Amino acid sequence: MNAEIINRTIDAMCNEIKAQGGSILDWRLLTEDEMLYEAAICIFGSQMQFEMAVATADRLRDRGLLFSKQLASMTDCEVQILDALSQPLPVPDKNGGVRTMMPRFKNRLASLLATTITEMYGKGHSLRRLLFAADSAKDARKHLMLNVWGFGPKQASLFLRRIGYCADLAVLDVHVLDYLRLTRGIRIAPSRLGRLSCYEEIEDTFREVASQFGHSLGCVDLATWLTMRVAKREAYL
Description:
mainly alpha, Endonuclease Iii, domain 2, Endonuclease III, domain 1, 2 domains, two-stranded antiparallel ribbon, 2 strands, globular
């Protein structure tokens, strides 16, 4: 599959995304616990496939471990999360079935989430307050990176997209980076994107790409992720 076919697919995918009405969530209507669930998905998504991240967050929510008002100590919170992640999870596969898998890096993930919950809520902060206090989407991203353990620029951007906060930030994961390498000859190590200045530089480049498609940055970013993910999974690339 060459760049021309990839671009045509992305354009068609953008039209499909717009036809479906974009994000089904309105962040202003979400409860704090619903936001915490979305944040957990984004924290986990940096260490595992998206479907696994959702299954992991679902397990914790079902166990009552994603509540902003719980008063457990960080140690108790971490122990409970680790226990929930120490058992196999049902994860959908690409053929429509379900397989059981063990979460990777469960110790690190338990530590990140427990620290976020106890530090943020223990200090009287909340995700909703951070977002309402932000002056812009980029400002919101910075606040999230400072207050949510495990959030770098990519995870914070994904969170803001998933809750319907904005459509003008890019989620520069490996699939989008592969697209930029294929179509623009840009090669960049994902590890460099942990630095916000570098992330925003590549984001601006991708913003130029989005303008050529005539769709919002968030729409083109999501369409690119979907297209490249399927192309690589089906060995078209």
